[in-house]
Design brief:
This protein has 201 residues and is of the alpha/beta class. The protein has a single domain, classed as Rossmann fold. The protein is 28% helix and 23% strand. It is built from six helices and seven strands. α1 packs across α4. The longest helix has 11 residues. S-adenosylmethionine binds next to β2. The site of S-adenosylmethionine has 20 residues, from β2.
Length: 201
């Protein structure tokens, strides 16, 4: 396998870290499309949901949600990611916004936060802040749903979690209501991710 390019930024908490990697097209987390489990989730949803995609990267999912009539917004704090997301979003490019997940304020109450390689992009020490922010953005009954990465490796990103750790992280705010294997993972996540949905209490 080819060596990854060398990068100046080693801090995944900085937008520069992600900008550099997008700029050099070193994006091994990028699925190149929309995972089947999200398509299934949209198809079985009784109605469109006001949705946030935090750390959206290429934001392929935005088009599927908007085309289904969902009020979806994709945010990312890395300008290169936002440029890429906007380019792929076509008529919905205004729904891709440059913003920090920890500061962005929703214009309308959210019903869903879609998780895809965002939690695992951040160092483990940030997890309590991510879970608290999810909880702060969602009213009771609203959900976090998407892909959760389970792994023991210390080095990342991606930083995997173990099941007990995820349960402990979510327990103060959320109940797990869906937990399924994933059939179409890309190599980085293969055999190590699950589709999960968590409902805000
Ligand atoms: C591993 S990538 C995943 C991108 C996309 N969700 C995907 O699955 O292809 C993580 C993304 O989160 C973004 N990100 C990291 N911290 C962020 C923050 N605090 N606010 C907004 N975006 C953030 C990065 O810029 C990067 O695009």
């Amino acid at each position: 396998m080819a060596e990854p390019p060398s990068f100046a930024s080693r801090d995944p908490l900085s937008p520069q870290f992600w900008d550099e990697r997008f700029a050099q097209s070193f994006t091994p987390w990028d699925r190149g499309g929309v995972p089947q489990a999200l398509r299934d989730f949209v198809a079985r949803s009784p109605r469109p949901l006001t949705t946030l995609i935090p750390g959206c990267g290429s934001a392929y999912e935005l088009v599927v949600l908007c085309a289904a009539g969902w009020d979806a917004t994709a945010i990312d704090f890395a300008p290169e990611a936002v440029a890429r997301g906007k380019a792929l979003a076509g008529q919905w490019e205004k729904r891709v916004v440059e913003a920090d997940f920890f500061a962005w304020q929703p214009p309308r109450p959210l019903e869903l936060i879609y998780e895809c390689a965002f939690l695992c992009a951040l160092p483990p020490a940030m997890r309590p802040q991510v879970a608290a922010r999810w909880a702060g953005l969602l009213a009771p009954g609203a959900r976090v749903a998407g892909f959760f990465f389970f792994d023991q490796a210390v080095k990342g990103p991606p930083f995997g979690i173990d099941r007990a750790g995820l349960d402990a992280l979510m327990a103060p705010y959320f109940d797990c209501i869906e937990d399924e294997p994933v059939s179409d993972s890309i190599p980085v996540f293969a055999g190590k991710e699950r589709w999960m949905a968590w409902r805000r209490r």
